[in-house]
Amino acid sequence: MDQQDAGGRAGADGFVELRVHGVSATGPDDLLDRPHVQQVAGDHRGGFYRPRPGNHEGGEADGVTLEAYRWNNLPAGTAVRTLSMVILLPFMLINLAIWMRPAGAGDPVIKALCRLLALTLTGMYVLSMVGIALDVIAWKCMSSPECLAGRSWLSWLGGRPAGLRLAVLALAPAAAISLVWGLSARPALPSHVFRAADQPLPAHRLTAVGRWDNEPLVGRLRSIHVAAAFATLDLSLLGARAAQGLSIGTVALTAVAGLLLVTCAVLLCTPPLTAPTEGRLDRLVSVLRTITLGLTVLVWIHVLTNPAPWPERNGLPGYNLTVVGLFIGQAILLAALGAVLFWHRDRQSDAAPSLGFGALAASVAAISLALTYSAELAYRVSDVLNRGAPTAEALITSPPRACIWAILGFTLAVLVTLAVGGVVSLTSRPGRKRAAASIVARDFPDAPNDAGPRLRQVRKAIAHARFTERLVPLAVLYACLAGIGMTMVALGLLPTPPGELIQRYVGLPVSFVNFSIGVGSYLIAAIIVGLIVGGIFAYRTPGFRRYVGVLWDLGTFWPRAAHPFAPPCYAERAVPELTCRITHLVDSGNTVVLTGHSHGSVLLAATVLQLPPRVTERIALLTHGSPLRRLYARLFPAYVSDEVIHEIADRVDWRWVNLWRDTDPIGGRVFPPHGPDETPAASDREATVDRRLCDPYGVIPPSGDIFPPPIKGHRPCESEEAFTESVRHLADHLR
User: Fold this and answer.
1) N or C end: fewer C-beta atoms under 10 angstroms in the chain?
2) DSSP letter string over 142-199?
3) Highest mean pLDDT among 11-20, 386-395, 722-731
4) pTM (two decimals)
5) 647-670 pLDDT, tens per residue?
């Protein structure tokens, strides 16, 4: 008997409660609240579990068979997650941008702009490696005897022709490109086994997640970005070679590399890019990538074998100009994206505070983060090569001035955002405290006098949870400030150092400016270390799990539609696998109560939209700690809206219960509070879905205990009586 048969027969002609966890899951035994469990379907990455037969705890409760779906191994393992949180985070953010667009017209233009911005991120990644390997090390350090002194791993190239040094060190950027190429080309999840194609694919709906065969698009994007990456490396080498003097070979190779780069940009804007089957385009991008790889070999040989002397002065010829030109191109694309989003913004009175500018905010955040990564890496490498000298000119030329201006711009954006966030926190605190006091007074009207300290803790938890609504405007503010800070990079073209320029026109001392740059550099380093630690402990420590885990699962929920180097999407397998399992359970004669916590509720929402009517007639839905409205509807208005949420409720015939707490900073209601002008029928149906839980259920220690009940916040509700009653209520409706 295989696992599928065992799982189907165990609950045949009965009721199955299928639990889907959120980011806080630990193991199937904890999810099922049973000490001994067995896997009945799936594999080690995503599997379905039930209590073992003969377990003294029992596999059924009130006639309902328990089953759990564990998916937290689908996104990635610890090592890959850590690497992704640090290196691939900008790629993940730009991939989110294409899904955060507002609903309505303008989709082709917004998608094209997001994909072009994603292409500039690939160029920035390559230029950062070029800046370290070719500019700082090969060009500057190896031209300085003081820098090479005591460094045998570098001195063997010292004094060699510049062409040889550049050719050898160019292998480092090529290896960096190959690294992300290999990571993005990992074997895809076997989602084709679970994919259901019996329903038409709607546009701009959550239904698309998990039903979209994304492999053709990712493969094309991968070939285009790899070609663009090597073309950028070629142009960097040829720009340095052109400083020695133009030749027919240099001009010809430069023209070909530039043409290939333009071709990559044009292909990203063509409609056939997203077609499920497009053989001609697949062959074209494959040929484009092959030609670019061949061109890279020719450029490498051209740089290596040219015997003419190279003028070694300042930095790598053309590098600063290339970096600034890239930022100017990004600024133009961001301005165009902002204009399109503004034209197609949501003009409804109850629109989210982001006003549909989430795509712009995510794009700016991705670019500014990639910029600060690059600047910090170049700054740190230069500091190491300088042996910690207080003056960068002591041994070698300091990092490119564009990098120093980038660090300064990032520091100002972060400090201003933190200052505004502090002001918003202080000014909104009285209102949040009043709302929290009103809730606590309503929940605990007869609290004794000695419960004062506990009541203050509850009010504080509720007030903190209500700050989530202010985070979206703060994110938009940071995006605007970071965008303004990016313009400072253009000052890197000026010959005057940042400290002297600011002292001349602003009046701040040079020492203070240099100190600020150093503080900004350490701030970026602290953020990188924090991301590394967060990636390691995201699923081991509750604190990291709550914040880093939410960011990770939010970012990897959406398919790769903009950048192929972003982490793979787990929903492409989880949703079809849930669809297959639920259909199997129903076809085996069961009725199913689906329960999902946090991101598990989003997976179930997408799954319900894909189930055929014969299945949805025999299922019910229970969500708790759901971010559907509070986060997804604000950030992804084209895919999660009132219309989509109502469609989910209609699919299950309004057999839906959503449990939420005022102390939860992530989850909340799935329907808005009822207004006086709503129709009674709509209000009555929506009122049956959202059910608020009093958290905590008491503020004094219960009999036999010395501690009051804990404040649950975003924790799952499976252990609470309200959860059990809701399952029983939904099971009765299914009967």
Assistant:
1) N
2) GG-HHHHTT-HHHHTTTTS-HHHHHHHHTHHHHHHHHHHHHHHTSPPP-GGGT---SS
3) 722-731
4) 0.84
5) 899 999 899 999 999 998 888 889
